[in-house]
From TrEMBL:
Family stated for the protein in its record: Belongs to the short-chain dehydrogenases/reductases (SDR) family.
Xref: InterPro entries: NAD(P)-bd_dom_sf, Sc_DH/Rdtase_CS, SDR_fam
Alphabetic keyword roster: Oxidoreductase
Protein's UniProt name: SDR family NAD(P)-dependent oxidoreductase
């Protein structure tokens, strides 16, 4: 057995069919890791199946589908093999008129991006062994509020708290937690944005940064730093000043 085979990881990856998730899938598989590719689109999953260790289809908005998928992976003894869980899947939609607040849109985004994680964790966490790793892909949008991002930002802020709180409770279990704050990444989701996205990077660049940080078992990753450090600097300024900067058109 080669050294590479001995160190191969088994990775449960949500949102594996597009964007950052697809780039993660490609890079992990190319280096010899075994990826359980999770997604909603059956046709896209079918295209990954020949190279995936296993595919798993479910809709993040359906707790029953998530629970059934996790139970299936558990019965097949697949979850017990997992070294890394990467919770990457999500959606982004904007509230264009805050005065006419869209409650349904808000609920949909919170459900997809945050509530679904509870069902995924319920299924996966009991099977994770000491030495495993949980990775939450959040957003640099939580560093500083952005216009129109009430739903998306709130869901990602919830992920931040979830990850940081779980880290405390899982310490005694020997399970590490990594929180990821990407900046603007070119994906099918961001292709819909109608505003300037400074320091835009590719999905492949994002995946490379995530894998490098996860390999080092870092608690917190943020990139590209020319954006995230700028946002952190803005957050230290008086509110009246950074609000003017961030709402400039």
């Amino acid at each position: 057995m080669t050294a590479k085979a001995m160190t191969a990881k088994t990775i449960l990856l949500t949102g594996a069919t597009s964007g950052i998730g697809l780039a993660l899938f490609e890079q992990y598989v190319s280096r010899g890791d075994k990826v359980i590719a999770c997604g909603r689109d059956e046709a896209k999953l079918a295209r990954l199946a020949p190279r995936a260790y296993k595919t798993c289809q479910f809709d993040l908005n359906s707790p029953d589908e998530i629970k059934a998928a996790m139970q299936s992976l558990s019965l097949d003894n697949v979850l017990a093999q997992v070294n890394i869980v990467i919770l990457n899947a999500g959606n982004c939609r904007y509230i264009d008129d805050a005065k006419q607040f869209d409650g349904q849109l808000f609920q949909d985004i919170i459900t997809t991006n945050l509530t679904a994680l509870g069902w995924l964790l319920q299924g996966a966490l009991p099977k994770l062994r000491s030495g495993s790793q949980l990775v939450f892909v959040s957003s640099s949008a939580t560093i500083l509020p952005f216009p129109r991002s009430q739903a998306y930002g709130a869901s990602k802020a919830g992920i931040d708290y979830l990850a940081n709180s779980l880290r405390l409770d899982l310490l005694k279990e020997g399970i590490d937690v990594t929180l990821v704050h990407p900046g603007f990444v070119k994906t099918p989701l961001t292709d819909k944005n109608d505003f300037n996205m400074p320091f835009l990077i590719t999905s492949e660049q994002a995946a490379t940064a995530i894998i490098a940080g996860v390999d080092k078992r870092k608690r917190y990753l943020h990139f590209p730093k020319r954006l995230t450090l700028l946002l952190k600097l803005f957050s230290l300024l008086p509110a009246s000043l950074w609000q003017k900067i961030i709402t400039l058109k």
